[in-house]
């Protein structure tokens, strides 16, 4: 792999950019691998990357039904934060946030991480108390957050209306080191690094069955034939239920559609991410100038990657109330992604009833921010066969044992 | 927009009038049941990509719960029936079979 650098750009500029390599290879699958990961989204590619980097396992294939990063990795609102209430969540999201800080250097790929700060608005007295509690919990967890008053919110976000008629802004939970990153670049950067380690990224290859012998996984049937493997990682987000069904177990997961939209590009007006969980809407401004807006989930099982119109209306109503200046903005694009929601709204990084088969799913509406931490923890689980400290709390057994990691209350809807 | 007919009041209700309630026909385990049984009742879900039986409430209408058969992959609604049913009615199952020959049937 040729490293990307200012010298590489200068060299290529002198020869009409004819020397750039493809960022990753597109090989035909081998007969068998040491490990197969189903799903070449952010989480799957990060798992493969850390399997190679941290554990030296490079005889790995990442199998993808569609194209690389074309699922929820390309459909999210790119927000990165780690201000969670419960210890296991704060640990894994903070690990992820800290890995994002150095990811561009680590991968030699500019993921455009922008630690511009994230504010979660407190608009009811319950929320004020909740965020004060979260700020104290974060202090104990070593996550840098602070509770700020309404005047400080207005100072950081001049376009906000803090005296709204329904829900005036009372304060906010501010994480200065949170922010955004380029979502596609995260998938592309990991893919390039994985390919460089000799891993095979196989796109347009759908898994149609999981084969096992004596309670252990031995391979997968795909649209490109049978591929053997010693270990299998299922990292397929919205379609986790279908793949788990092939592997013969059921998950505490339901698939629903989550929507997002972007406006026409405007001049820079907001340099932080603002989440308003009471009225339910969140917004940030992309480098292109578009306002990136996160909407809500529909309350019914859905695999169509499109959601209900009235949820968009609700989100925009909430945001116009919070940011009156956007009332004349035109919305350019709207899309949906299928999110896998667990009973306690926290993810699964777990062994499964099938031997040597592991699952990483249930990130629900908040997976992008977790990608590097999730890959780190999943790689440890797959390499050692047992979960490490980051993944231990996220086992499937917690639903049987009642050991929930209940973030749905702490995080509100925008999770 | 999703439209379901309320089996009680006969209204063709669109989804803004309805409240979704997820999977139907769950076996509700009570006191003395095992952790596995509680898990299957409270958390384990079929979550199919295809024919799904689910609960809905006519929230801004008669207020009653009812059940519906719907395709989660196309959003096609096959039919609705009263909540006082322990399994989908045979005529509805037959109708779905006709439209989805590859469907394995209600399990």
From TrEMBL, chain A:
Q: Pfam families of this UniProt entry?
A: DAO
- One BP term from GO: tetrahydrofolate metabolic process
Which cofactors does this gene product need?
Answer: FAD; FMN
Q: Which UniProt keywords apply?
A: Cytoplasm, FAD, Flavoprotein, FMN, Nucleotide-binding, Oxidoreductase
Q: Which residues form the Rhodanese domain?
A: 36-79
Q: List, alphabetically, the PROSITE patterns matched.
A: RHODANESE_3
Entry GO terms, CC:
cytoplasm
| Record GO terms (molecular function) | nucleotide binding; sarcosine oxidase activity
Task: Write down the InterPro entries for this protein, in alphabetical order.
Answer: FAD-dep_OxRdtase, FAD/NAD-bd_sf, Rhodanese-like_dom, SoxB
**Superkingdom of this protein's organism:** Bacteria
Q: What protein name applies here?
A: Sarcosine oxidase subunit beta
Compartments in which it is found: Cytoplasm
Q: Origin organism of this chain?
A: Pseudorhodobacter antarcticus
Enzyme Commission code: 1.5.3.24
Which family, according to the similarity comment? Belongs to the SoxB family.
Reaction(s) catalysed by this chain's protein: sarcosine + (6S)-5,6,7,8-tetrahydrofolate + O2 = (6R)-5,10-methylene-5,6,7,8-tetrahydrofolate + glycine + H2O2; sarcosine + O2 + H2O = formaldehyde + glycine + H2O2
The leader peptide range reads none
UniProtKB/TrEMBL annotation, chain B:
* InterPro entries, per the entry: SoxD, SoxD_sf
User: An example of a Gene Ontology BP annotation on this entry?
Assistant: tetrahydrofolate metabolic process
Q: Name one GO molecular function term.
A: sarcosine oxidase activity
Organism's domain of life? Bacteria
Task: Tell me the protein's name.
Answer: Sarcosine oxidase subunit delta
């Amino acid at each position: 792999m040729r490293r990307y650098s200012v010298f590489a750009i200068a060299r290529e500029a002198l020869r009409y950019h004819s020397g750039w390599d493809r960022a990753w290879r597109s090989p035909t699958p081998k007969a068998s691998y040491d490990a197969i990961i189903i799903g070449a989204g952010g989480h799957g590619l990060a798992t493969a990357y850390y399997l190679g980097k941290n554990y030296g396992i490079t005889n790995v294939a990442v199998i993808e039904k569609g194209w690389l990063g074309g699922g929820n990795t390309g459909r999210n609102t790119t927000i990165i934060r780690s201000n969670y209430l419960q210890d296991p969540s704060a640990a894994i999201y903070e690990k992820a946030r800290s890995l994002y800080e150095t990811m561009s250097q680590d991968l030699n790929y500019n993921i455009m991480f922008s630690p511009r700060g994230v504010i979660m608005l407190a608009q009811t007295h319950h929320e004020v108390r909740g965020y004060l509690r979260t700020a104290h919990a974060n202090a104990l967890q070593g996550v840098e957050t602070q509770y700020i008053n309404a005047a400080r919110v207005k100072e950081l976000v001049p376009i906000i209306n803090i005296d709204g008629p329904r829900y005036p802004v009372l304060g906010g939970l501010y994480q200065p080191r949170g922010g955004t990153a380029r979502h596609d670049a995260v998938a592309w950067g990991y893919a390039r690094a994985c390919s460089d380690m000799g891993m095979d990224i196989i796109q347009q290859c759908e898994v149609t069955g999981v084969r096992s012998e004596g309670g252990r996984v031995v391979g997968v049937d795909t649209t490109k034939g049978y591929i053997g493997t010693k270990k299998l990682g299922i990292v397929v987000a919205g379609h986790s239920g279908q793949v788990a069904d092939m592997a013969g177990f059921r998950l505490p997961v339901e698939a629903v559609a989550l929507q997002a939209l972007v406006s026409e590009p405007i001049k820079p007006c907001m340099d932080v991410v603002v989440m308003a969980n009471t009225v339910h809407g969140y917004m940030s401004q992309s480098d292109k100038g578009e306002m990136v807006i996160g909407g809500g989930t529909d309350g019914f099982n859905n695999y169509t990657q499109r959601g209900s119109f009235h949820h968009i209306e609700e989100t925009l109503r909430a945001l116009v109330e919070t940011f009156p200046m956007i009332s004349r903005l035109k919305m350019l694009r709207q899309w949906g992604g299928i999110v896998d929601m667990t009973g306690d709204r926290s993810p699964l990084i777990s062994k499964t009833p099938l031997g040597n088969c592991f699952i990483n799913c249930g990130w629900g509406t908040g997976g992008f921010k977790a990608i590097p931490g999730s890959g780190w923890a999943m790689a440890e689980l797959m390499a050692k066969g047992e979960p490490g400290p980051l993944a231990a709390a996220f086992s499937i057994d917690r639903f049987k044992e009642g050991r929930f990691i209940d973030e749905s209350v702490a995080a509100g809807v925008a999770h | 927009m999703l439209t379901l007919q309320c089996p009680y009041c006969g209204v063709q209700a669109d989804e803004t009038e309805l409240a979704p309630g997820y999977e139907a026909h769950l076996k509700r385990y009570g006191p003395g049941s095992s952790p596995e049984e509680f898990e299957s009742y409270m958390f384990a879900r079929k979550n199919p990509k295809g024919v799904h039986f689910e609960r809905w409430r006519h929230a801004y209408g008669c207020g009653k719960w009812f059940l519906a058969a719907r395709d989660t992959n196309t959003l096609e609604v096959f039919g609705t029936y009263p909540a006082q049913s322990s399994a989908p009615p045979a005529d509805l199952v037959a109708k779905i079979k006709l439209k989805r020959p590859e469907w394995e049937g209600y399990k």
